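Repro:
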Amino acid sequence: MSDESCIHPGCDRPYWSKGRRYCQAHYHRKRRGVDMDKPIKATPGSYSAPDATCSVDGCDNRPYSQWLCQNHSRQVRQRALWAVKPESKRRDNGLSRYAMTSATYDAMLAAQGGGCAICACPPIEGKRRHPVDHDHACCPGQGKTCGNCVRGILCMACNQALGHYEKSGYMPADFRRYIDSYRLRTVA
């Protein structure tokens, strides 16, 4: 047994705390007064053999749960969640924040000519959809908007640029036209 291992007889797990010299499992068992010789089950994040690696080819990380590292274990869980989620739910993911459904998003995008309301670039097939732009002054500090402050659908570049322009006070002409058209729609 090395200097770095648990002092409980037969345990080769690394010790958890220098002052206590027990591995995490044996330390907690000793504090709770539980049988110290009971076998330790492998749980997520628990100790594995020092030379063990993730079972995914090319990954040299230590196992987190059974045979996968923490990153690959998370990916497996995410894939399982997405597999049971219907396509309509996946498309609506995030749109409820703007009081929209995928149908209203598609209708708004079609009304804009199928692309960004400022530069007219179309969304790239198979990639993320264009973000929804809304007036931050309407519903400040809330996680959701009222739905009335949605201005349009912009590409990522125009959406980020608009945010910077609104903070700086300088507004190029095409961005100014977009903001003014929203204001005219809300007044009418």
